[in-house]
Amino acid sequence: MRRRALAPISVALALTLPWVAVWSSTSLLPWLGYRAPAVFRTLSTFGTVIVTGLAVLGASFLLAWAAETAEKDVPRAFAIAVLAVLAVAPEYAVDALYAWNAGVFAETDRGIEAGNLAVANMTGANRILIGIGWAGIALFTIFRRGSSSDPAVEPRPGFLADVVVLDRDIGLEVVFLLVATVWAFLVPLNGGIDVFDMLFLVGLYVLYIAVILRGEAEPETQHVGVPAYLQQFSRGRRIATVLFLFAYAGAMIFTAVEPFAHGLEELGRGIGVPSFFMIQWIAPLASESPELIVVIYLVNKARSTAGFNALISSKLNQWTLLIGTLVVVHSLALGRYGVLVFDSKQSAEIWLTAAQSFFAIALLLRFQISVREALVLLGLFLSQVLFEFVIIREYVELPVSSTELLLVYTAIYIVLGVALFVRRWQSFRRLLRRTAGTVGEAMPIGGNRPQSTDD
């Protein structure tokens, strides 16, 4: 087992070493007063994308192994929540950059544009996570080789009716995500992201972490490969290894994602793709890649529930921490408290993102998602991006503006979501009762520990 485990770890670490060499030579050596070797100073844009992309790939596997190993000592939901935060750290880094620039260049055209880009990048990342992440992973789970032996895949009679059945324990994340989604609809009404958004959304995530930390550790989960080998370590050595993997992988992702995303933007501009479109879609797609890689890894090991849990947890922390902390970064750069303002186009972007989230949550009320539902989720996302690109590039004349298109899709998502909530009202009520029981057990009032209500 030792040899089979050390080989993939060595490969993952090797993927990150070129970026370690480049970053050390171009950032660390100049800071120490030394001149970087010419081979690193002349690295092309394409070369930078390749090197940083490999680093993100290697770090993604290190994150996945660390999270699985940690399940021996902490509740699985908490391990996956930590994984989700680290895996979307690239998105935090990119978005924080724009929020910071909005504060530094406040009340100038550059500052206003930076504020809009911060919102555009955030909404693009969130919609990618659901439109490509949730939908794509559901389809991958069902149609991948070996899916017939996956207990999460359930064949159903009918056209494209097969479903991925999810563990009902993720109901806690679904309900917290629904609360964050409802609040997100209100964010544009104040003209920007303010301190109240920060207090509510960050507070909501802190409550979620407090609840899952009260859960029981689940050491009975059977792992194979690298996690199984690492879980054989003594407790102290195992914890140190997990912390190292989290820290090292997080550092790789944090340092590599900005040049990776900006490199992709430059390559896009070279082929005529508008910068705004690149920042909203291509840069977030690059920064979300660690999360998608991790989930594909988990699903491929027939751990579909853990994969979806990671995706839902990522969506929850992006829809709470990411939005809530943008105003903090903006205010620090500004030197005083200030609302992160954005224009009407970005208000429509937030409403559309919240509406997509509302519809996606409605799909999961029965803790399953079918092929048809995944295709609808994917189709709506791709068609909206395609139509918006057509409008921006003026390939054809459409009867709506870009902002009007966003509002049309917002209405479609809301109508579909409301229809699903009405049809699945009893499932929603059971979900709320179950979640209330979970929260009550974790955060008892007056020392009483109410029993959770199962379906």
Counted up, domains total 1
The helix content, as a percent range, equals over 70%
Q: What is the helix/strand order?
A: HHHHHHEEHEHHHHHHEHEHHH
DSSP strand content: under 5%
Question: From the helix content, strand content and strand pairing, which structural class follows?
Answer: mainly alpha
Radius of gyration: 22 Å
Question: Which stretches of 5+ consecutive residues score pLDDT under 50?
Answer: none
The first-to-last residue Cα distance is 41 Å
Biggest sheet, spatial arrangement of strands: 1-2-5
List keywords for this structure.
mainly alpha, 3-stranded antiparallel sheet, 3% strand, two-stranded antiparallel ribbon, A middle domain of Talin 1, 5 strands, 455 residues, single chain
Descriptive overview:
The protein has one domain (2-442): NCX, central ion-binding region (A middle domain of Talin 1). The chain has 17 helices and five strands. It has helices spanning 2-31, 38-41, 45-70, 76-87, 89-104, 109-143, 171-186, 195-213, 225-230, 235-270, 275-287, 289-300, 304-334, 344-363, 371-393, 402-423, 425-442; strands spanning 153-154, 163-165, 192-193, 340-341, 368-370. Helix 3 packs across helix 12. The two termini are 41 Å apart. The mean pLDDT is 84.
Question: What's the SSE blueprint?
Answer:
Elements lengths: L1 H30 L6 H4 L3 H26 L5 H12 L1 H16 L4 H35 L9 E2 L8 E3 L5 H16 L5 E2 L1 H19 L11 H6 L4 H36 L4 H13 L1 H12 L3 H31 L5 E2 L2 H20 L4 E3 H23 L8 H22 L1 H18 L13
Antiparallel strand pairs: 1-2, 2-5, 3-4
Helix pairs in contact: 1-3, 3-4, 3-10, 3-12, 4-13, 5-6, 5-10, 5-13, 6-11, 6-12, 6-13, 6-14, 6-15, 7-8, 7-13, 7-14, 8-13, 10-11, 12-13, 14-16, 15-16
